Amino acid sequence: LGTSLVAGSGYAGEITASGDAGYTWSSEEVGVRSDEGYGFNHDITFSGSGELDNGFTVSTTMILTETAGLSSSNVALTMGGLGTITIGNGLANLGGAYDDVTPRAYEENSDGMKTAGALDSVGTLMDGNAILYSSPSFDVAGGSASFKFAYSPENGDSATGEGAVAAQSNIYDSGMALGIDVTYGGLSVGAFADEVKDAQGETTNDGRRDAMSATWYANYSMGPVSVGYQTGGLDRGLATAATAATTAKTVAAAGGNFEFEKMSIAFNVNENLSISYGTLTETYDAQGVDSIADVDLESDSIQFAYTMGSMSIKGYNTDESNPGWDNDAEGNETTELAINFAF
Predict the structure, then answer these.
(1) What share of the chain is helix, strand, coil (3-state, %, to 5)?
(2) DSSP 240-260
(3) Relative to the CA of 214, which of 68, 98, 141, 343 has its CA 20 to 30 Å away?
(4) pLDDT tens across 202-218, in order?
(5) How many other β-carbons are positioned within 10 Å of the β-carbon of residue 260?
(6) What is the chain's mean pLDDT, rounded?
(7) b vs e for 280-302, b when ≥16 Cβ sit within 10 Å of the residue's Cβ?
(8) Looking at residue 8, what DSSP letter applies?
(9) Torsional class of 164: left (φ above 0), alpha (ψ -120 to 50), beta (otherwise)
């Protein structure tokens, strides 16, 4: 019966493969120490899609990296003018669409950081076990707008396979996220916010709070020039003691909250060459502990990208001060050059 049902349906689909490969050279300077390394990369993307009798389409994507590991995989159902429902892993879910959206020629500022940055961590608690809805674009006063919504019954980074339940967390429970984007001419603005519930409740949480992250951005393009501004913050809701200004911190484990502000400008010199400059400040706040000073982590990044058909040459130089939000830490400077080929 199952075979006859599949054979008798009007579903027609196809599977394709694409990818890219290349070489990298990186240099990192921390104080007086300097390290260099050569590397390689390749991503192979397998994509499948098909159309149902009612006009809906189903698509799936799987990406394999140079380590033979699975970078991401997902299944999306596009329901015509009703929007798209996506479930998968490695997408950074809804937060991945908002974690660093100001103009740049190559990578995010966080690519050269010693630890994961606050801006790069927006929405990451809902990465692996959430359902994502994306609306179609609709007209608003001569512009266009769209929104996205995500819900996770149990937060975590691990993929949830067929018929499985998410791994239980003793820190976080369910979560919801909302994102809105509006474009009008050369101006695009948007905002994102999520809230992740504490797993143990008010009676046993020992001061823990619900986690949250939020950001908004505005980008404007004027011919070959694009400028952008983004700000926001996050709080993991942890009850750990506030960390001293002279101690290294991580977003995942630090008590306190993080705020960030980024500005950047990108210029398309011609159809092949683009350059950009971005400056990012991320502030650690011990939340009411007056004896602990706020610490600013700052990074400035100069980037370029040059394309010649399927070949591209890209690079950046990122200078970071107070890495790990540690006032005693030595500065970190990272330089990367990459040659890539698409196929």
Answers:
(1) 10, 55, 35
(2) SPBPPTTS---TTT-BSEEEE
(3) 141
(4) 544 455 678 899 999 99
(5) 23
(6) 86
(7) bbbbbbbeeeeebeebebbbbbb
(8) H
(9) beta
